[in-house]
């Protein structure tokens, strides 16, 4: 059964009036992906769904990505197929859609992950034009949050940044992703601007295969939350392994997030997934995670937060 699911990030939407816009955003993304999926390609579906979210400044990916401690944008993205083909970029800037660059890495190189200036050079070689993803809203948030952090006198310490994350979860923690199954191929894709005020050069889970993004013959998974948690738990691969052990996507998603909660507490992680039978699953231990999915037996997508 063909299916597609997208997420707009796990965390907390503190401003209730933003929730309808967030829901509209994931709905628009899942429908963009569904259009491509009906044409037969899970790969195209995931790319188009993620691009829709990257182009929406409400989400922390592509346009609207958060800023590093020194006021720059460094984005991560990855895409992977069930045949284990994969491509990713880390700490890239100056492009509109990192997910599309990640796909080119998969299709045009012998590598899996390109980072920093090398990723940007590759993007230019592939014809991706220069683009500034910084929005006025993100710049204002950066100025306010950086000022607040510096007042502590310990801006270099993650403990202080963690306190800010708890205080402003709606702007500090967010990633976008999509997983699709076309009846043969399972594809997962994830994209993010990272965490606000992150140290320059910090790379999260999104472009690390098995941590934030993973797909194999059993399932495809896209994770969201605190990247360091996903990296330490190899979260996306863990979710796929649960399917290999016999669980269906809903149970596998719940079991995986329970592990994250056991080790790191609540408020750190969420994920979406589709298994080899077309079952969709999603789970989170944060207050919110915007999700939308569509299957061939549905007339309208499910949309929730």
**Oligomer state of the chains in this structure:** single chain
Strand percentage lies at: 15-25%
Residues in helices, as a percent range: 25-40%
By DSSP (H or I, 4+ residues per run), the number of helices equals 10
Q: H/E order of the elements?
A: EHHEEHEHHHHEEEEHHHEEEE
For the termini, the CA-CA separation is 24 Å
Query: Judging from the principal axes of the Cα atoms, what is the shape?
Result: globular
Structural class by secondary-structure content? alpha+beta
Query: What's the total count of β strands?
Result: 12
Low-confidence stretches: 154-158
Largest sheet: 8 strands, mixed
Side by side, the strands of the main sheet go 4-3-2-6-5-1-11-12
What would the keywords be for this entry?
single chain; about 300 residues; alpha+beta; eight-stranded mixed β-sheet; four-stranded antiparallel β-sheet; 10 helices; about 25% strand
Describe this structure in words.
The chain has 305 residues and is an alpha+beta fold. It has helices at 19-37, 42-54, 98-108, 116-125, 136-150, 158-167, 169-172, 227-233, 235-244, 249-264; strands spanning 3-11, 75-81, 86-92, 113-115, 176-181, 186-192, 213-215, 219-225, 269-275, 280-284, 288-295, 302-304. It has an 8-stranded mixed sheet. It has a 4-stranded antiparallel sheet with strand order 7-8-9-10. β3, α3 and β4 (113-115) form a beta-alpha-beta unit. α1 (19-37) packs antiparallel against α2, α2 (42-54) packs antiparallel against α3 (98-108) and α9 crosses α10 (249-264). The longest helix has 19 residues, at 19-37. Mean pLDDT is 90; it is low at 154-158.
């Amino acid at each position: 059964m063909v299916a597609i699911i997208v997420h707009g990030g796990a965390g907390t939407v503190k401003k209730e009036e933003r929730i309808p816009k967030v829901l509209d955003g994931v709905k628009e993304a899942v429908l963009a992906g569904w259009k491509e999926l009906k044409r037969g390609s899970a790969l195209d579906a995931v790319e188009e769904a993620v691009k829709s979210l990257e182009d929406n400044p409400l989400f922390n990916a592509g346009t609207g990505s958060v800023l590093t401690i020194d006021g720059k944008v460094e984005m991560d993205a990855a895409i992977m197929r069930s045949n284990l083909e994969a491509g990713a970029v880390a700490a890239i800037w100056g492009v509109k859609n990192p997910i599309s660059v990640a796909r080119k890495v998969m299709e045009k190189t012998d590598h899996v992950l390109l980072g920093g200036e090398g990723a940007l050079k590759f993007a230019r070689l592939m014809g991706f034009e220069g683009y500034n993803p910084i929005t006025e809203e993100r710049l204002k948030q950066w100025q306010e949050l950086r000022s607040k952090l510096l007042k502590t006198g310990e801006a270099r310490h993650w403990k202080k940044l963690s306190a800010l994350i708890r205080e402003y979860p709606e702007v500090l923690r967010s990633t976008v992703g999509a997983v699709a199954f076309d009846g043969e191929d399972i594809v997962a894709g994830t994209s993010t601007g990272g965490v606000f005020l992150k140290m320059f050069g910090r790379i999260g889970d999104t472009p690390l295969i098995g941590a934030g993004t993973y797909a194999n013959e059993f399932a495809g998974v896209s994770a969201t939350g605190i990247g360091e948690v996903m990296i330490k738990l190899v979260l996306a691969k863990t979710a796929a392994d649960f399917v290999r052990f016999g669980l269906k996507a809903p149970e596998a998603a719940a079991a995986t997030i329970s592990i994250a909660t056991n080790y790191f507490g609540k408020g750190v992680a969420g994920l979406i997934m589709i298994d080899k039978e077309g079952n969709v699953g999603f789970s989170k231990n944060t207050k919110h995670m915007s999700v939308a999915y569509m299957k061939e037996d549905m007339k309208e997508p499910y949309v929730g937060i």
